[in-house]
Amino acid sequence: MNRTATLPWRPAAARDPKGWQTNAPCIFFAHGKCRNGQACSFSHSIVPKPLTEMPLAANVKATSPATTSPVTTSPAGDTRKQVNCRFYALGTCLRGDSCPFSHDIDVEVGEKGEVQTPDEDEMEPDDNNPDTWIRELGGAVVQYGDGAGVLKASLPSDFSAVRIRQLPFHSTQASVRELLDGFGFVVSLDDIRVIPIGKQGLCDADIRVEDPSFAKRLAEATDPDAMIKVDIVNAPMPKASNFQRVECKKVNCSWHRPLKTVWLNFGAKRDASAAHDGFSSGSYKISGAPVKSHGVKGSHQARSFQPWTVMLTEVPAGATETDVHRPIPMHKRPAHVELGKPSFQYHTATANALVKSKLMEIGPLDWWEDAAKNGGKRAKARGRFQEEGLAAKAAASLNGWVLPFGNKLRLDAQAIYSARFRVVERIYKVVKPVIDAQTESWRAKHVFLTAYDVSRTNGQRVLRLEGEDKGEVAEVKGALERILAGEVAMDGPDTVWTPAYAVNGGVFLKLKQIEESLGIAIVRNKRLSCLHLFGSPEKCKEAQPLLAEIAKEDTSTTHTIELTDDQFSWARLGGFNEMRKTFGRKITFDSISTPKRILVTGSEKDYRLALDKLTTREDIAAKCTEEENTCSICWTEADDPIQTSCTHTYCTDCFENFCFAGSASSNNDFSLRCAGASSTCGKEIPLSELQDHLPSRALEKILEESFTSYIRRRPDTFRYCATPDCDRVYRVSSKGSPVAFTCPNCLTTVCTACHESHQGITCAEHFDNKSGGYAALQKTKAKLGIKDCPKCKTSIEKTEGCNHMTCLGCKAHICWKCMETFKTSDACYAHLTKAHGGAFDTRYGDFQGF
């Protein structure tokens, strides 16, 4: 779509032959040093015009009531003006107002005058900077808050965008916002991006707003005769970040450095030969770079005491005589060094700024790392764009671009595909040898793995894959995911498991002994009742029969005791601790479930004794207390403990299971709240802590489940595509204004009002046509005992149990007898008792109540 309109404002350049440039004061004229006289493009009026007289005025920063900071110019569309001039920061810029870089800067200068650069740890913001907690799921951009709950979900159809063209080149985000304010449009600075272009004195601005009607309304509100134009364009989605997904935001740039030739003159042939051998083999380097040596020749010098010469080529242009001497032993150094001229004139800072400015023309950068002043034969810089896909665009447009210095010097720009992982340190330690064994083959595919220091990531190891080929990166990513996922312990076709593995008893101690003896890690997945093994495939294979034998020898069974409110209160006030004195590790608590449960792992006799203890419970004169090392979920000594900011402790695997299951039974929106202090804490767990305590695989899965819960609970706002297994989301429209949604994933078209496909006819006509088949379907469902959820119409089949049902779609609590819905399970049970005489049908037994 490319609708064009114009804004009713003309820049000063349309009225004044000298254009907007006369508005900017000449700082050199103010000091009596301007050499350009009448030809100067800046104003020679010492007092600049008031800002109120300058539409979309340039930034003029007052340093005192009588002075202003210098304002410089550059060719129109030249983004170098957005980059600071390092020489000006040091007070050594000789180009004055002709300098293409910004002199309106605030640069931190070191004690010795050098411009300070970030520490090396700050050079990788995609790995070390705080997560934005924005994810792209189901075609939506999702913003998360503490507790992993969804704060907001936005679809592409929620945004609209315009490009305002032919603005003065000195336009800023603030000046564009001021212009839009005049038309009654309130726009955030973050939604505005100013883009210099190649036309004299002009630039563009892109504005993206989360309002589908914004672009059309702005276009209709503008004057078609004005100079500044407005184009309606496709709206890009806000940037999102995802672990374990291949993305393309980084670009690597490199170019040849200037080189020169150096001659070394020796008095002894053996010293000349030694120097030649050292440089030829690469053991001698100049400024860290290998150079070429062209053998030992008789000296072209007339001096007889220096008859032997070694010529070196491809020497870094900045190398000094000291740099040449440094790699050669003191007693073998040449008597004389002759330095040739550089192959071309070059300033590292200027080259860095120029390349950075070219990238900024393509899109905003999150981060940029300059090429080092010294190094190899090629200068290497890199940057990271804010938006996905811009790195590929930059590589396509800038690779091979002729740099304005040097003889046909070209830029090499390469898009980098990357994927990141977070893994618990104890697992990383045992899988590292497996990873190391494959890194050589990965490097052969030009895919490289970086593992960051665990001290920088709060106990978790961050891994990053990078490569130039998307397919190769995706293939290696799959291999790494399989290593980090481990393997499930199997006994033939069966999963190895015994209820005793779920508790920290004697069987658990045997599991720990196997871990230590074989050098592997074993993670108990209580949620799925299986063991995950990590480490050497051979050792994991050796462990499986040992674990299977333990499971076979154990005859214990897990018995569940659901607690009433009175029983739970008794247990939390000290009753559970009293039971632990009798049963030891045979009993654990389950604070995730609703209602709360005590799990007895042992014989039928143990179960009966525990049940009797609860039934005949004695008064406990104790307060609700938790020991520092007690897990808030199982109420036993925490295994591999972690602690939240609210000072509550969890077993590592209990915490992960809690995050997966803790909100599944919640009656409200997804929100992970601390289960400490006997489930009374309730503080939302910060996202940063979830990131610290969960591997990236688990965290991303939890965020996906949170999004699924958010969508399912809002059937009047969002729906999933009608195609099975398609995860695309669309926004529901009113029945009075239906819209056809064509899924970009599977290309299925559905009506956003009735959620069925009926192209070319109305909803009413469609239902009339299908009524015969619809009635037959309803008859079949009634025959099979299948009912639809009264709220979201999800089909539900009851096979056993009580008449309290929970819809898997919208989480509504349903009375199966009359299909009435409730917000909580307690309300549903109360209704069943009052209206239907109990939660169970008589055919299940005589039990009618609780």
Automatic annotation (TrEMBL):
Entry's Gene Ontology BP terms: proteasome-mediated ubiquitin-dependent protein catabolic process; protein linear polyubiquitination
Occurrences of domain C3H1-type (ranges): 20-47, 79-106
Pfam families, A to Z: IBR (PF01485), IBR_1 (PF22191), zf_CCCH_4 (PF18345)
Keywords recorded for this protein, A-Z: Metal-binding, Repeat, Transferase, Ubl conjugation pathway, Zinc, Zinc-finger
Gene Ontology CC annotation, any one: ubiquitin ligase complex
InterPro entries xrefs: IBR_dom (IPR002867), LUBAC_E3_Ligases (IPR051628), TRIAD_supradom (IPR044066), Znf_C2H2_type (IPR013087), Znf_CCCH (IPR000571), Znf_CCCH_sf (IPR036855), Znf_RING (IPR001841), Znf_RING/FYVE/PHD (IPR013083)
RING-type domain segment(s): 627-845, 631-674
The UniProt record lists the keyword Flavoprotein: no
Alphabetical list of Gene3D superfamilies matching this protein: 1.20.120.1750, Pneumovirus matrix protein 2 (M2), zinc-binding domain (1.20.120.1350), Zinc finger, CCCH-type (4.10.1000.10), Zinc/RING finger domain, C3HC4 (zinc finger) (3.30.40.10)
Molecular function terms, GO-annotated: ubiquitin binding; ubiquitin-protein transferase activity; zinc ion binding
Protein name: Uncharacterized protein
Lineage: Eukaryota, Fungi, Dikarya, Ascomycota, Pezizomycotina
